[in-house]
Design brief:
mainly alpha
Length: about 230
C-alpha cells in the first residue's frame, strides 16, 4: 500500500470511500460514450474505452492504495488525453488549411508535414509522460503530463470543432451548448481539485468538501459532452 496522496486519504487513510465509489461515475460515462459513439469512429471508441478503464483503476486505487491500481488510474488518463490532443490538433491543422484556401493535395504531390509532426509529437509526449509516471521522483509532474494534452484538446475543440460545424449547427443550439458546458465543467472540476489538494495540509478541513469526488463527476461528464460534440 502506498502512502495516501489525496487530501481525503491523508486525513482518514484508506479506503477512500467517497473517492472510490464516485469513480464509478467515470465508468458510467465511459460506457455511455461507448454505447452512443459511432462504431466507425475509432477515436471516440478508444478514448471512451480509456475513460472506462480509468474509472475501474480509480475505484481500485482509492480503495486500496495499491501501486498496481495506481497505474490503471493514471496511465489511461495520459493515453486518452494524448490521443484526444492528437486527433483534435490534427483537425485544427486541416481547418486552418481549409480557411486559408488550401485544397487537398493532388495524387502524387507532397502532402503537408504538419499532420505527421503533430502525430509524432503527441505520441512521443505520451511515452515520456508514461515513463515519468513510473518514476516516483517525477510523479509530482502528473498534473502537467495530463493537463497539457487535455488543455490542447479543449483549446483545439474551441477553434476547430466550432468552426468546422458552426454552419451546419447554427440552428442546433443544444449541441453547441453541450460542448461549451462540457468544457466549463471540466475546467471547473480541475480547478476545484487542484485548489483543495494544494491547500489541504494547511487547511485540512478542505477534505470535507470532497473536491476529488467533484473532479470525478465534472471531468468525466464534461469530457463525455465534449467528445460527443467532436465525434
Amino acid at each position: 500500500m502506498m502512502d495516501p496522496v489525496f487530501c481525503e486519504g491523508r486525513l482518514w487513510g484508506y479506503p477512500e470511500y467517497v473517492n472510490s465509489l464516485s469513480s464509478l461515475i467515470i465508468c458510467f460515462f465511459g460506457l455511455l460514450g461507448l454505447y452512443r459513439c459511432p462504431k466507425q469512429n475509432l477515436f471516440g471508441v478508444v478514448v471512451f474505452a480509456m475513460i472506462f478503464v480509468n474509472g475501474c483503476g480509480s475505484v481500485g486505487y482509492h480503495w486500496t492504495g495499491s501501486e498496481f491500481w495506481k497505474y490503471f488510474d493514471g496511465n489511461p488518463m495520459i493515453i486518452a488525453a494524448s490521443l484526444a490532443a492528437l486527433f483534435t490538433c490534427d483537425e485544427l491543422i486541416r481547418v486552418r488549411a481549409d480557411r486559408a484556401g488550401h485544397e487537398l493535395p493532388a495524387v502524387g504531390s507532397r502532402p503537408s508535414p504538419w499532420p505527421a509532426v503533430n502525430a509524432i509529437f503527441w505520441s512521443a509526449f505520451a511515452m515520456v509522460a508514461l515513463y515519468m509516471d513510473l518514476r516516483p521522483e517525477l510523479q509530482k509532474y502528473f498534473p502537467i503530463s495530463f493537463g497539457l494534452p487535455a488543455c490542447a484538446f479543449l483549446a483545439a475543440i474551441l477553434y476547430a470543432g466550432y468552426v468546422t460545424h458552426k454552419e451546419k449547427l447554427r440552428d442546433d443550439w443544444k449541441i453547441i451548448s453541450y460542448a461549451k458546458l462540457g468544457i466549463v465543467m471540466s475546467l471547473t472540476a480541475a480547478t476545484a481539485w487542484i485548489a483543495t489538494e494544494s491547500n489541504c495540509e494547511e487547511h485540512p478541513w478542505l477534505g470535507y468538501l470532497h473536491a476529488h469526488c467533484f473532479w470525478h463527476f465534472g471531468a468525466s461528464y464534461g469530457l463525455y459532452l465534449t467528445i460527443q460534440f467532436t465525434v
